Amino acid sequence: MTRVKKWQPAIGSVAQYIGGHSTLSRQGHTVRVLAEASGKRMVVEVIGKRGAPVRVTVKTKNLAPVMPGLFD
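-> structure tokens emitted (72 positions)
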């Protein structure tokens, strides 16, 4: 049985964050990956409710590649 390598976002790339705690995060957010943190987490930047960029730490397993053609 072969293992499938999970997607690992590169620093500075754009990713889709899909969380499981609130309705808003289950719909997904487009985030920018800023740095790698400890414990399989990444520091990302997202636009907050007031329009200002907010830095948060999220689990890598909740990040996915953006849909093709979104920023082409």
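The CA atoms of residues 29 and 67 lie 12 Å apart.
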